[in-house]
Structure formats: C-alpha cells, structure tokens
Amino acid sequence: MKIENYLFSAKTSGLKKNGQLDLALIFSNVPLRVSAVFTKNKIKAAPVILSKKNSKNIIRALIVNSGNANACNGADGIKDAKKVMSLASEALNIKEENILICSTGVIGERLDTSKIENSLPELVKSLSEDGAEQVARAIMTTDTFPKVVVKNMTINNKNYHILGMAKGSGMIMPNMATMLAFIMTDLPLSKNLGDALFKECVKYSFNSITVDGDTSTNDTAFFLYPDADMYFGNNEPAYGSGKDSAFKGILEKDINYDIVKYSVGEVCFSLAKMIAEDGEGATKSVTVEVINAYSELSAKKIAFSVANSPLVKTAIAGEDLNWGRIMMAIGKTDARIKPNYVDIYINNFKIVENSKSLGFIGAENEKKIMSQKEINIKIDLKCGPSFFKVLTCDFTNEYININASYRS
C-alpha cells in the first residue's frame, strides 16, 4: 500500500487509555496543495481552526492524534495545537504554515502535548512508504476496523494512484460527520481544479452519510495532491524528472478531469460506505434512496429524515417491517410531495403503493426481507425528476452502551 512521494508513520503516545496507536504523521517529499472540507458546527475544535487557515498554503505534512479532540478548550486549545505544530515543524525541518493538524476523541479535556513531544522523534524517524494502514489504525476511536481504499487510474497512458483513509463510527451527520478523511494522489492538479473536483465528490459521499444525526466539532476531509501550478511554473520543476505532457489535460475540465473525478469520487464513496457500515453498534447497512422528487433538495431532506429517524432505525434493528414509520419520516419534512402518491420498496419488494399498504405479505416474506444485512429503502415520490441517496445503519442497544461509557 504505497503512493509515490508520501511517507507514513504511527505510534502509541499514551493519549488513548487502551494503549493503542494514537499518533500519526503523513509527510510528502514534494510540495502539495490541499482541498479541504470542514465541519459546519459553529463550535470548532482548535485543529480545525488552524488547519482551515493553513489549507490555503503549500502543505508538506499532516499530524493527527486520537484519544483527545482538543475541542472546547478555549485559548488553551489553540495554544496546545500550535505547540504540536511547532514541534512537528522543528522535527521535520519545515515551516508551521506548511503543516495540517487534526485531532479526534473526547471533547473538553486538555491535550497533553508532552506525550506527543516525547513520541515525535520516533514518529519522524519511522516514516516509511509502507505505513498507511498503521496511520488508519492510529486515527480510530470507536471504529471497529481501519478504513483504507486504494485505486489506480490511467491518464494519457500513465498510471497514477489514489489512497484514501478515514475514521468515523458515531456522531455522524453532514456537514460533515465526526470523521476524519484523508485522500491523497500522486497526480499533480491545480488548486482551483482540485477544489471543484473535491467539492463534487464530498457532496455524494461524506455529506451523504448519517449514523445518529449529530455533527461533530472536529470533522475534516483533506484531498492532497502535488501542486501542478508549481510543477508547470518553472523551466525546471520543483520536483519530479521533468515536465510531463500527461498532466496537461488535467488543467482544464475534459475527459481526463472526468476520469479523476470519478476515481476520487469512488474512493470517497467507498470510505463513506465503510463509515456508515461501522456505525456504533450497527448490525445492518442501510441505504435510503429517494427518487422522482420535485428537487434534489426535497429528495435530500426526505432521505435524511428517514435515515435519521430513531423509530425507523430501531425497527430495522428489530427486523420489524413497520413501513408506517417511513411514511411518518417522509411527511414530517417541509419537502414538497404528493401525500397520496408515495411508493415504498424495501430490498426491491414493493410494500406501499400510492401511500397504501399492498396487503399482508406474510411472516416468511417479512423475515426474508428484514433479516438481510443490507437494507435498501427506496421511496418513489412520483412528482419530479430528482433523486438523492443516503447511507446509514440501524440503532441497537450497543450504540447506547458504547456512548454511555465512551469517557471511561
């Protein structure tokens, strides 16, 4: 699991009480640009505030800790995050303005920067091409597995790579979720093009998932790529073996742009799906698809209303085909609908037509439908051309158990 010019490292610093990996570093041998999406929560963690500022700059490194969110600590939080960036700057011999920082974990507890300081020398020393999966493990909190996706793409007969990793399991809801996502490629892109491309990809991936309807203070997604403007801006490029015509088609929107957008989008969607499937205590992966809506906004409102409904999610966990809860969740939104013309399918089995039950389907069929590990709810509004799809999961008792004891 390698990608050209990127190095990875992860260590145990003691920030997590369980003694697992909790400190990670991603370093680039070449100047990078970053396209970034941050939480819309008005209460933002210190790392979000500082990374948002630095995201306009050339980037060389990203340092991440788990076990502590460094959120709601006021001026001390900013001070601690800056301390970590200063330590990383010195250890890597780069400027602080060229560093991104992320944290995830418990909110409201002061970050112990001494633990990071003690671990940094070894963290830098152990940087290697092979450490991506360890980084993915180090950023986990209540996740049950590391989330990593690798994809190759061919541009003008030359191969390039995309590597994505994410964490997220609970407190998941746009915009965005309590998730960290880092997608990186060895294909040079211009900043404007990277921003436009990533915005489109996030819309239908990380901003189309929900576990519990809660939006975190630390949500961050980064798309990292070599800076094409620097690459083409000099007679001699700042890195690489020379100017390569394979890159030139990416500077404007054309067929190569579509290839890159599709590839990055596929990585983002795969990671988003993993997050939804790994919802805290989840036993089922759920897709809510709204079709034939008046507008995309209407479809989105209804899809999220159904996906976030505790009554719908617990019915799915209990394998109870209680379609009335879905109708309730549709009707409680302010989306424009035709109330008497709604059709509902579950796993391609039509159970509601024109807002009425199609009749008793029998215990055997209900069991067959609801016992599946993947549940697809399709809602046909029959009133327009638009659609939207949301990924989510069920609610079980384990969700309560996990979150009731998260700090202990």
Explain what you see.
This protein is α+β, with helices and mostly antiparallel strands. The chain has 2 domains: 6-277, L-amino peptidase D-ALA esterase/amidase (4-Layer Sandwich); 285-404, Ubiquitin-like (UB roll) (Roll), CATH 3.10.20.340. 33% of the residues lie in helices and 26% in strands. The strands form 2 sheets. Strands 1, 2, 3, 4, 5, 6, 7 and 8 form an 8-stranded mixed beta sheet that branches. Strands 12-11-10-13-9-14 form a 6-stranded mixed beta sheet. It is globular, with a radius of gyration of 23 Å. 49% of the residues are buried. Mean pLDDT is 86; it is low at 171-177 and 233-249.
What's a concise summary of this model?
The protein has 408 residues and is of the alpha+beta class. It has helices spanning 46-54, 74-92, 113-125, 132-138, 191-203, 228-233, 255-277, 296-308, 310-317, 323-331, 363-370, 397-404, and strands spanning 6-11, 23-38, 59-68, 99-106, 147-155, 158-167, 180-185, 220-226, 285-293, 343-346, 349-353, 356-357, 374-380, 386-393.
Which features would summarize this protein structure in a list?
single chain; 408 residues; alpha+beta; L-amino peptidase D-ALA esterase/amidase; Ubiquitin-like (UB roll); 2 domains; eight-stranded mixed sheet; six-stranded mixed sheet; 12 helices; 14 strands; 33% helix
